[in-house]
Amino acid sequence: MTDHDDHVEKFWSRLGGINSGMLGLTEDARLVPMSHYAEAETGRLWFITAKGTDLARSLAAGGKDAVHVVGDEGKGLFARIHGTLALSDDRAKLDELWNAVAASWFEDGQQDEDIQLLRFDLAEAEVWATGGSLSFIYQIAKSKVTGNKPDMGEHFTLSF
């Protein structure tokens, strides 16, 4: 396995274990917390939101450049992900993604008229992959004993 393949696998496997991040358009500094659904095979993330949100309304004229930022020390992944965010009317995908968490936001469940699916086609990700919180503690303790800087993991960029 090449370093690139290893980085891709590490990114998607760790991202799949993280439930949320901060999503926004690159033209606007405002990011909002959103749960994502990772789809490695297509290089996409999916989001379920309401049609009345600022984010959904801003996409009415078409897809826009966006950023999704995730960080989870326990999973050992910190990433800034760039791509194109667009509205989607894919009912089959909504059926596939629908769960109790999504249902809690919509009074009429999956049939609620306010549901809006968002598709995020990834272009690039800057990734910091660490050994997780226990590794962090070990690396800090080791640096105090040896005087060397701690090894905080890998930093790489992926293009999709």
From TrEMBL:
Residues 6-151 form the General stress protein FMN-binding split barrel domain. InterPro entries: Split_barrel_FMN-bd, Stress-Dev_Protein, YdaG_split_barrel_FMN-bd. Keywords: Plasmid. This is Putative general stress protein 26. It comes from Paracoccus denitrificans (strain Pd 1222).
